[in-house]
Amino acid sequence: MLNKNTNNTDTNNTIAKDGVLQGLRVLVTRPLAQAQTLVKKIQAQGGQGTVLPSVEIAAVEPTAQIRRSIENLDQYQSVIFVSGNAARIGCDLFLDNWPQWPIDINWLAVGSATANAMAEFGLIALVPEAHDSEGLLKLKQLDRVSGSKILIVQGQGGRPLLAETLQSRGAIVDVAAVYCRQLPSFHSGEMFSTISQAKIDIVLITSGESLVNLCAMAGNKLADLQKIPLMVVSDRIAQIAKEKGFGLAGPDTLVISNGASDEAVLLALQQYVNTRKK
Questions:
Q1: Which of 17, 31, 79, 201 has the most beta carbons within 10 angstroms of its beta carbon?
Q2: What are phi and psi of 277, to 5 degrees?
Q3: How many domains does the chain divide into?
């Protein structure tokens, strides 16, 4: 059964009567636990949020290699978290062995949302200007890394670019895949019933896999989904969207935010509303 939650995500949270997002109806495709906070912020600014997860996150049993990485955490010069899920699940695993964080480690986050998740565990992370692997690779801390030990914490099936580039620079790289992404159980009729009832104005996508899954969930109604404006959080995902047939109706139908954090998404939604008013 598709896990969905419409405008009344929190019945105790009254939608603002006035706000910069007044009347905007947003479909949030993040996993349920991560979507709730953003929906509340959308509501606080006068909009309406509907949660329809296109990805489910599940922690995986650590492999022997991951357990060795956790036990030897203090031997790494840099530890990189590539998503908020990686930060939350990874830090939980680390704390089983490290009640106090080891010192002299460069803690790096792919974006501010990931850094915020790390901060909940007492870690202060360095965040690149561009919130993606390419942005991380431009950081001076990852420039001259020959001989350095680096741990990348991510999900299963993550992009290999970061690890491969760091290895080409001479680093010794370990990858800890601490969670997997799953396609929610669904049928397209239920999905479009949710979209229709909520009268969605724009769909928010925060990962490439989320977009691929959403297209799969749409089934033979993909053409209907492509008619709804789409907001993505990076140029890379925008390119995937274009390849899937989104944004063909004009520039306002494919919107790119400056990152996946709630703040970046809200700002992009505000700019979208202002553009529609012109």
A1: 79
A2: -75, -20
A3: 2
The phi-psi region of residue 100 (left if phi > 0; otherwise alpha if psi is between -120 and 50; otherwise beta) is beta
Q: 211 and 257: one domain?
A: yes
Q: Which amino acid is at 14?
A: T
Model-level pTM? 0.70
* CA 213/CA 21 separation, integer angstroms: 27
Dihedral of the alpha carbons of 163, 164, 168, 172, in degrees to the nearest 10? 40
Q: Tell me the CB-side half-sphere exposure of residue 222, using CA atoms within 13 A.
A: 13
Any domain includes 107 = yes
Q: What is the CATH number of the domain that holds 98?
A: 3.40.50.10090
Is there a domain that residue 149 lies in?
Answer: yes
Mean pLDDT by runs of 10 across the 278 residues of the chain is: 40 49 94 87 95 91 96 97 94 94 96 92 94 92 96 91 97 96 74 88 92 89 92 93 89 88 92 84
> Are the C-beta atoms of 112 and 264 separated by less than 8 Å?
yes
Question: In sequence order, what DSSP letters do the residues of 238-277 get, joined into one string?
Answer: HHHHHHTT-STT-GGGEEE-SSSSHHHHHHHHHHHHHHHH
Tell me the backbone φ, ψ of residue 124, rounded to 5 degrees.
-100, 120
Two tokens, residue 185? 């159980």
- Determine, yes or no, domain membership for 44: yes
* Structural domain boundaries enclosing 134: 58-181
- 59, burial (CB in 10 Å: exposed 0-12, middle 13-18, buried 19+): middle
Is the domain of 156 the same as that of 109?
Answer: yes
